[in-house]
Amino acid sequence: MEVILRQDVDKVGLRGEVVSVARGYARNFLLPRGLADEATPARVAEVRKVEERRAHHEAKTFEDAQGVAERLRQLELRFDVKAGPTGSLFGSVTPTDIADELWTKHKVRVDRRKIAVDSIKRIGRYQVPIELFQDVTVDVRTLVVPEGGALPPEEELEAMEAAEQAEQQPPPEEKHELDLDELDAAALAQEAELTASGELQPSRADVEGELSDDEFDRAVDAGTADGQQQP
């Protein structure tokens, strides 16, 4: 089934793209959440017109791309976003967001599909590679800053990320050490099991309080007759 994405969707496509997805995925996830619209012929035609208009503003030659690259090297993009205490975003900064920011504030049109970065999900300082033309790629400085705050130093950012990763690690399994009573009980249970299976013969001391000497001797003789070895 073909749909038109209304937002960037990881591993599916970018906003405005026409993509083919499984019908169940579209009906049960993309469409109900407002992430996509069904790709009717009229909607697809409108998307194609938008793509053509954008293409007119992109670099057409190697020389054009070099000029755009020089402009982009002087820029610093900034995104003020909602973030948690460990620096994780409540959402993400996507390639489409970067392309829109370049167009809206700097009137530079780039192909979103040529922005070589995954969705950014943490505050920080980034160098975002953008391919403008064949053999012309530029890194654009990009800041992702917590809303209403300032961007911490790099060392603090690394510590925040390490703390978050530590929180996500499963707790170590607790090793249960047996106390003396439990060790004695375990030993007695093992001894009883071996005795019941015939692998361990009872000694005279084990049963002398229960059997007389004659009874014990007869019990041992009976065990020998059954093919068991006398201790």
Features:
231 residues, alpha+beta, Ribosomal Protein L9, domain 1, Ribosomal Protein L9, domain 2, 2 domains, 3-stranded antiparallel β-sheet, 3-stranded mixed β-sheet, 8 strands
Please write out the topology.
Blueprint: E1 2-5, E2 18-20, H1 23-30, E3 36-38, H2 41-55, H3 62-73, E4 76-81, E5 88-93, H4 95-106, E6 120-122, E7 124-133, E8 136-146, H5 154-168, H6 180-197, H7 204-207, H8 213-225
Parallel strand pairs: 4-8
Antiparallel strand pairs: 1-2, 1-3, 5-6, 7-8
> Mind telling me the C-alpha Rg?
37 Å
Q: How many domains, as an integer? A: 2
The share of residues in helices is 40-55%
CATH topology of the largest domain: the name is Ribosomal Protein L9, domain 2
Q: What is the helix/strand order?
A: EEHEHHEEHEEEHHHH
CATH H-level superfamily of the largest domain: Ribosomal protein L9, C-terminal domain
Q: Quick one: how many beta strands?
A: 8
Sheet with the most strands?
A: 3 strands, antiparallel
| CATH top level assignment of the largest domain | Alpha Beta
Helix/sheet category: alpha+beta
Which word captures the global form?
A: elongated
Model regions low in confidence, pLDDT < 50 over at least 5 residues? none
Task: Explain this structure.
The protein is an alpha+beta fold. It has helices at 23-30, 41-55, 62-73, 95-106, 154-168, 180-197, 204-207, 213-225; strands at residues 2-5, 18-20, 36-38, 76-81, 88-93, 120-122, 124-133, 136-146. The chain is built from eight helices and eight strands; from the N terminus they run ββαβααββαβββαααα. The mean pLDDT is 81. It is elongated, with a radius of gyration of 37 Å. The protein has two domains: 1-56, Ribosomal Protein L9, domain 1 (3-Layer(aba) Sandwich); 59-168, Ribosomal protein L9, C-terminal domain (Ribosomal Protein L9, domain 2, Roll), CATH 3.10.430. It has a three-stranded antiparallel β-sheet with strand order 2-1-3, with helices on both faces. Strands 4-8-7 form a three-stranded mixed β-sheet. The chain has a two-stranded antiparallel sheet with strand order 5-6.
